[in-house]
Design brief:
Layout lengths: L5 H6 L10 H9 L9 H5 L5 E3 L6 E3 L8 H5 L19 E5 L24 E5 L11 E7 L11 H11 L5 E7 L7 E6 L2 H6 L27 E5 L1 H12 L12 E7 L7 H13 L6 E7 L2 E6 L4 E6 L24 E4 L8 E5 L2 H10 L3 E4 L6
Parallel strand pairs: 6-8, 8-9, 9-13
Antiparallel strand pairs: 1-2, 3-4, 5-14, 5-15, 6-7, 10-11, 11-12, 13-14
Length: 381
C-alpha cells in the first residue's frame, strides 16, 4: 500500500509500518471500480467511521479514520485471503464441471433461491478422491419446496429453510434482500422477523445490497443475544467468516449474532443503475414497474412481464458492461465458507441444488426437510 502514500501527502509525516487508511481502500478498491458492495468494510470498522453513500451505494468515510487498517485487511478485494476462511476438506469432495456456457446469476433476493446459470443439461456435479472443487459437503440434494412459495425462484428452498427456522424459534431474524419501496427491481437489505416477511421478500434481484453494512441490530427490537441468518453472495459470507474467526469489537455491527449463513451460487453481480436503468429501461425500453421476473439462465438474460410474456431474451454477455468489475477477481462461485450453498446449477428447471456444508447448516436443513421435495443431485455422478 506504500504506493498510495496517503499519509505523506496529507501531513508529510513518515508512515508507520503496515498502517493502512480508508483513503487507501478508497483509492485501491472503490475508486478503482473493484468494490463488490459486500459491506464488510462498514461492518469491520471499530469506530463506525465508514458508512454507505446515499447516491452510489458505495462505502464512504463518515467521520475521521483512525488508520486501524481493518477495512483493508478484511476487504475481499483488498487484503483478505478469503480462501483461508473456508473449512478444511473433511469428507469425500465433489467438483463442478461444465459442458457448456454458463454465467451465474447474481444475488437474487436474499430470501429466494438464486439461479446459477445453467441447468441439468449444461452442468454436472461430480465427486472423487482427486477433486475438491466444492469443498466440504456433508449432504447434497436437488430440491424444491412443496407447496410452492409464491414469488420464489428455482424451487423456493432458501425461503423454506428460513421460514422453518423462524417457525421453530431457532432464529430471531434473517438479513436478506427485498425490493426497494421507491425503485422497482432494486434489492435493498432487510431484516425479516417472521416467516410471512420472508415469503413476502421472495424474488430475485441482481444487485448487491451492502448487506454487511446493515449488521447494526440496535435499530431492531431483538432479544439481548439475537440469532440471525444472513443470505447472500459468497463474498458476503467470506467477510462474515473472517470477522468471526478473528473476534474484535466491530463497532455497532453484531457479527457475533450471525448463526447461519446461506450462500447463493454466484459468478457475477450487476450495478442496479447499469443493468436495470441503463440497459433495460433506457436502452431496451422496458417499463420496470411492469416487470414480473428477471432471470439469467443458459447464458441468457430473460425478462418477463407480469403476465409471463418474455420481453427480453438476449445473451448475458450483452449486459457485461453493467456487471461489477470486482466480480472478475472472484474465485468462490460456490460459497465454500457458508453453512449451506444453494443455486440452480446441477438441477432441472424449477429446482435448486443444495450443498449442506456444516452442522449448523444440517440442523437448519432438517427443520425444513418435511417441506421439501428431495432427491439426489440431478447432475451428480
Amino acid at each position: 500500500m506504500a504506493g498510495f502514500r496517503i499519509r505523506e501527502e496529507m501531513t508529510g509525516a513518515e508512515e508507520a509500518p503496515g498502517k493502512t487508511w480508508f483513503w487507501e481502500l478508497e483509492a485501491g478498491v472503490i475508486d478503482a471500480g473493484r468494490c463488490i458492495q459486500c459491506g464488510t468494510c462498514v461492518a469491520v470498522c471499530p469506530s463506525d467511521s465508514i458508512g454507505i453513500g446515499r447516491d452510489d451505494d458505495l462505502p464512504e468515510l463518515v467521520k475521521m479514520c483512525t488508520g486501524c487498517s481493518l477495512c483493508w485487511d478484511f476487504c475481499p478485494r483488498g487484503g483478505l485471503r478469503y480462501e483461508a476462511t473456508w473449512p478444511l476438506i473433511e469428507e469425500t469432495p465433489v467438483t463442478l464441471s461444465t459442458r457448456g456456457n454458463g454465467n451465474g446469476k447474481r444475488q437474487r433476493a436474499a430470501a429466494a433461491d438464486p439461479p446459477g446459470d445453467g441447468s441439468a443439461s449444461g452442468w454436472t456435479i461430480s465427486g472423487g478422491p482427486a477433486s475438491n472443487g466444492l469443498g466440504v459437503v456433508r449432504e447434497s440434494y436437488t430440491a424444491r419446496v412443496a407447496p410452492e412459495v409464491p414469488g420464489a425462484q428455482d424451487g423456493g428452498v432458501v425461503s423454506a429453510i428460513l421460514m422453518a427456522a423462524l417457525d421453530a424459534g431457532h432464529l430471531d431474524g434473517v438479513l436478506l434482500a427485498r425490493e426497494d419501496d421507491d425503485k422497482p427491481w432494486k434489492g435493498v437489505a432487510h431484516l425479516a422477523r417472521t416467516p410471512e416477511d420472508v415469503a413476502a421478500s421472495a424474488g430475485s434481484f441482481y444487485n448487491q445490497t451492502m448487506a454487511l453494512g446493515h449488521l447494526d441490530l440496535d435499530r431492531h427490537d431483538l432479544p439481548p443475544n439475537p440469532r440471525i441468518a444472513v443470505v447472500g453472495t459468497p463474498c458476503e459470507v467470506e467477510g462474515i467468516r473472517a470477522m468471526q474467526a478473528r473476534p474484535w469489537t466491530w463497532g455497532k455491527s453484531r457479527v457475533d449474532a450471525v448463526v447461519l449463513t446461506i450462500a447463493l451460487l454466484c459468478t457475477k453481480s450487476f450495478d442496479y443503475r447499469g443493468l436495470m436503468l441503463r440497459e433495460l429501461r433506457d436502452e431496451r425500453g422496458v417499463l420496470l414497474s411492469q416487470v414480473g421476473k428477471v432471470d439469467v439462465i443458459h447464458g441468457r438474460m430473460i425478462v418477463e412481464d407480469r403476465e409471463g410474456n418474455r420481453i427480453v431474451d438476449e445473451p448475458v454477455r450483452d449486459f457485461h458492461g453493467a456487471a461489477l468489475k470486482g466480480c472478475d477477481e472472484c474465485a468462490d462461485f460456490l460459497g465454500h465458507g457458508a453453512d449451506i450453498s444453494v443455486g440452480s446449477v446441477g438441477s432441472d428447471e424449477g429446482y435448486s441444488s443444495v450443498l449442506v456444508r456444516t452442522e449448523p447448516g444440517r440442523a437448519a436443513f432438517e427443520l425444513a426437510r418435511d417441506r421439501l421435495d428431495l432427491r439426489g443431485l440431478d447432475c451428480a455422478r
